[in-house]
Amino acid sequence: MIILGIETSCDDTGIALVKCRSPQGCEILSNVVSSQIKIHAPFGGVVPNLAARAHLKNIEPCLLTALKEAKNPKIDLIGVTTGPGLIPSLLVGVNFAKALAYNWRKPILGINHLEAHIYANWLKPIGEISNSQFLISKNIFPALCLVVSGGHTQLILMKGHGKYKLLGQTRDDAAGEAFDKVAKLLNLGYPGGPIISQKAQKGNFQSFNLPRPMINSHNYDFSFSGLKTAVLYLVKGQRQKQGQSLLRRPLRTVPQGLSLRVPDICASFQQAAIDVLITKTIKAAKDYRAKSIMLSGGVAANDQLRKQFNSRLSAVSSQLNFLVPPKNLCTDNAAMVATTAFYRTQASQKQDWSQIQAQANLKLVA
Ligand code: KG4
Ligand code: ZN
Hints:
Layout: E1 2-7, E2 12-21, E3 25-35, H1 37-40, H2 48-69, E4 77-83, H3 87-104, E5 108-112, H4 113-119, E6 123-124, H5 131-137, E7 143-148, E8 153-160, E9 163-169, H6 175-185, H7 192-200, H8 225-241, H9 262-287, E10 292-296, H10 303-316, E11 321-323, H11 327-330, H12 335-346
Parallel strand pairs: 1-4, 3-6, 4-5, 7-10, 10-11
Antiparallel strand pairs: 1-2, 2-3, 7-8, 8-9
Helix pairs in contact: 2-3, 4-12, 6-7, 6-8, 6-9, 7-9, 8-9, 9-10
The structure holds 5'-O-[(R)-(carboxyoxy)(hydroxy)phosphoryl]adenosine and zinc ion.
5'-O-[(R)-(carboxyoxy)(hydroxy)phosphoryl]adenosine (KG4) binds next to α6 and α7.
């Protein structure tokens, strides 16, 4: 079965074609992502109307490239992200997908963006041995899924395909949002995650003792805004040490020219976030006797998070499988959307195209 995936929930226009078979899983035929970083970087975050305008401009060229790269296969199904996300962005992808489905007379399924992040673990990149063969050969459910993106941080128990229980989520900022805000504070640019992880490589994570919010709480929720505020006060402290009056100018970002121990701050912040994410996920996996842990979402592209998850897990249990998609499939893409659509059809799910609507706050678990 060949599936066309369409993703426009935030600032990446994604169009992909995947080939899926049961029980082998899905193989990528093409996976085109048009990034809008240059458009949003001057604003330090995504501007919804500019994002929608760029999606409108890019979506058709992305489709044509994806079709060409996949050698124009016959499409059996269309999967499109309907939420959660920015409404102006979602509307572009959803209406484009509906128009294609109507015009081509193809079935279409609306897909939850968070579920799609989880299903990135079922993708087989071209020519690579990946998680998918492994997943199919092993008994992986129940799986504990940590979805960490710019908009969400959720711990989800996946009991089987399409069967979810939400265990916990962030009470304020998402993990990726905290990376982005700290980067903004340090004048490092947007998006913050990749820049912080790069700077952190040259820093000492023990330089500053930052809080690990809710690390020992008796639930599976997270909170990252306090950690971000701790970085703000750390920067203010450093500025005071350098004799700059705090009264002179409120601090929202580091003034140019102020010398800060940026790599040390980045490494200390990153380690605090990683400690919380790993500790709470392992606790939930133990409590729910999970057979595997699946990491996904943009923050899952973080090298230290991937490495430390692996080492902490092998120290804790040799029974627990650890799965994480290749880095380019952790951030937003349409191949994960198409893969989710495949598993939906396996569960005999069908949708009338006229029923498919963009929903900013679409929930994976009611
Ligand atoms: O999943 P995603 O592409 O979009 C959303 O659904 O939000 O995630 C984007 C988020 C951004 O906040 C970005 O800073 C973060 O993922 N991110 C990272 C890394 N790469 C992307 N965070 C930490 N380390 C990274 N290497
Ligand atoms: Zn995402």
